[in-house]
Design a protein that fits this description.
The structure holds two protein chains of two kinds. By secondary structure, chain A is mostly helical. Chain A has helices at 5-12, 16-23, 27-34, 42-52, 56-59, and strands at 2-3, 60-61. Classes of the chains: A mainly alpha, B alpha+beta. Chain A binds chain B through residues 15-16, 24-29, 31-32, 35, 37-38, 40-41, 44, and chain B through 87-88, 90-93, 95, 150-151, 153-155, 157.
Chain lengths: 68, 158
């Protein structure tokens, strides 16, 4: 699964640390998601969408291998 | 969702402060078979087994309680260190915690299985003694190593 957290963050001009605070997770978690190493829970995905004021599907994109 | 059976973050330090001395003392006690007389006490027991007598259910027995004290302190401190919350206990930490617990269980029982087949008698008793504590120890090592790795990956933002 791909995500555009880094892009959305740049648009809003907020740092990883600030986003982490807003989403109530650690900076490590934000970083792991941006690196594609961690897939967040539904709750966290919805929180991020709410912070960025977009839909979840605008941030997270399914890839072919997600069906395997 | 909020319930996670963990102790508050501060308990980790308390656990560590008990763990280190009790581990050192415990190892010395078990290796040198220390049994100072001060610790010889009559204690209540559920099963009393005499070498030459009958087995008794519920009674008193004489025992050197130093190794019991070490064991109790070790288990309590290991549990505190293993199951105290991190500074920020979020879902990624939760996942690492679960993964590490599975990993530690496999490793612990892997070693036990191996020892069960290839180690006998008194030597196996030694394996059993260490095996009482190693599952928590393996978990603590693996979990903290993974968290450290995560912190290292924290790339500096441009």
């Amino acid at each position: 699964m791909k995500n555009s957290i880094k892009v959305e963050r740049a648009k809003k001009n907020i740092t990883q640390a600030e986003l982490a605070k807003m989403a109530k997770v650690s900076r490590q978690t934000i970083n792991a998601m941006e690196l594609g190493k961690y897939v967040p829970s539904t709750v966290l995905a919805l929180r991020l969408a709410s912070i960025f004021e977009v839909e979840v599907k605008d941030i997270f994109i399914l890839e072919d291998n997600d069906w395997e | 969702m909020k319930l996670n059976y963990l102790f508050p973050h501060g308990y980790k330090k308390i656990g560590l402060m008990i763990l280190i001395p009790s581990m050192i003392v415990g190892l010395i006690v078990v290796i040198y078979e220390l049994e100072p007389e001060v610790f010889d006490l009559n204690v209540p027991a559920i099963f009393v087994n005499d070498f030459f007598g009958d087995n008794e259910f519920m009674g008193m027995t004489n025992n050197n309680i130093l190794n019991e004290i070490c064991g109790v302190l070790l288990i309590i401190s290991l549990i505190l260190v293993a199951f105290s919350k991190e500074k920020q206990e979020d879902e990624l930490i939760n996942k690492i915690r679960l993964d590490s617990l599975v990993w530690a269980t496999y490793l612990n029982y892997g070693i036990l299985l191996f020892a069960m087949i290839f180690v006998y008698e008194i030597s196996f008793l030694w394996v059993m003694i260490f095996n009482m504590f190693t599952i928590l120890l393996f978990f603590i090592i693996r979990f903290n190593w993974q968290v450290m790795k995560l912190n290292k990956e924290l790339s500096y933002e441009e």
